[in-house]
Amino acid sequence: MTVTLGALIDALERAYPPALAESWDAVGLVCGDPDDPVDTALVCVDVTEAVVDEALRLGAQLIVAHHPLLLRGVESVAASTPKGRLIHRLIRGGCALYSAHTNADKVRGGVSDALADVLGVQHTVPLAPEPVVPLDKWVVMVPEGSAEQVSEAMFRAGAGALGEYRNCQWSVVGTGQFLPVDAARPAIGALGELTLVDEERIEMVAPRGRRSAVLAALRGAHPYEEPAFDVFAQVALDSDIGLGRVGRLAAPMSLAEFTDHAARVLPRAPWGIRTAGDPQATVQVVAVCGGAGDSLIDAATAAGADVYLTADLRHHVVDEALRAGSPALIDAGHWATEFPWCTTVVELLADHGCTAAVFAPSTDPFTVVPERR
Description:
Blueprint: E1 3-4, H1 5-15, E2 28-31, E3 37-38, E4 40-44, H2 49-58, E5 62-65, H3 82-92, E6 96-99, H4 102-106, H5 111-119, E7 121-131, E8 135-143, H6 147-156, E9 170-178, E10 195-207, H7 211-221, E11 228-233, E12 238-254, H8 255-265, E13 274-276, E14 282-292, H9 297-302, E15 307-311, H10 315-323, E16 328-331, H11 334-338, H12 341-351, E17 355-358
Parallel strand pairs: 4-5, 4-17, 5-6, 14-15, 15-16
Antiparallel strand pairs: 1-3, 2-6, 7-12, 8-10, 8-11, 9-10, 12-14, 13-16
């Protein structure tokens, strides 16, 4: 079965929404024509010469990488530059390149979930949850016969959307009353007469950025000269996405045992795993973050973790964190902590009709470790 690159990009962006990427990040399609067919893909952490060699050897039409090839400022992709040479090889070989980076770090089923799953960390929640984008809640009183026209106008203005659902509202019928005075021009009732009307109370949500548009739609469709409505700003709540994960092991073990466990189940970079902490300390609550995660040490501490496993930990950062009461800290290597995600991408692509393989050799740049004497 052959699928187009565009269809695979749609699937990848549903799984790893680009809007979740950090502002400094560079995710998405680097090269390739969305109309081209794809039947074979290669998934990797880093785009290296060896990865491109393997993709072209396989006849792959797509590489999905975690790390963007063109993350830092690039003024040229000439074939005389290291990155440009790779781009030219891919284009000549008919192979597209797509990256999912910090967006894949944050989502459910992303990098840190894959890492937690391999380690056996269960019942996880984000270590640094992203807040849900706050919405407004609109409550509008409308005479029964006009409720539908007001709702439809507000929907068209952007109200009533919840996730993948549209035209969402709740309503109940009650009795409204008003007394028109002075220069009022009531649509129902008469000046000086108390009027009772069967009204629907309509409730729906809308993005805060659509306030003006929703209000204009409400006023334009409402039969009353002065519609009765309320707008409530929701508080920001934590979502189920964000950087890192924290959860529990099925059974406690010592820090030394957990370190050995991590070394067994994670792919091993040449220089292995480093742990800072009491080897006999009990470990059950585990925090993880694929890739460089020293910025989340405080979050791991606040979450009550017994150990925090991540990568690229620095001497002084670790020393100061332990002195301040942080959990035990494990540096398992940047490539090794992100590599488990590659398998989930292979499964995603397979679900959408594309045969995919993982580039298994380590792309960790640190490759030479002296033998101990």
